[in-house]
Amino acid sequence: MSTISPPTEPGAVLEYRLTAADRCDSCGAQAYISAVVNGSELLFCAHHGRKYEEKLRSIATDWHDETARLSE
Predict the structure, then answer these.
(1) 62-65, strands of its sheet edge to edge
(2) Separation between Cα atoms, residue 72 and residue 69, nearest integer Å
(3) Is residue 14 part of a domain?
(4) In 1-72, which ranges are E strands?
(5) Cα–Cα dist 56/54, whole Å
(6) pLDDT for residue 9 is more than 90
(7) Phi and psi dihedrals of 26, rounded to 5?
(8) Which range of residues forms the domain containing residue 44?
């Protein structure tokens, strides 16, 4: 599984792959988390991503978390 973490070097630029056009599959808010399950990508806002994280992480082949952007 892949995860995204903050840059470790001063001045490093972190590239995000989710944009404002990516919307949560549960509520329609901006998505900050994507999970690939059975070859399909699911998008979640921070709230719903955390709500379903425990169950999804065990079956997801990829977990991409950009919630750190919320505190920037």
Answers:
(1) 40-44, 33-37, 62-65
(2) 5
(3) no
(4) 33-37, 40-44, 62-65
(5) 6
(6) no
(7) -90, -40
(8) 33-71
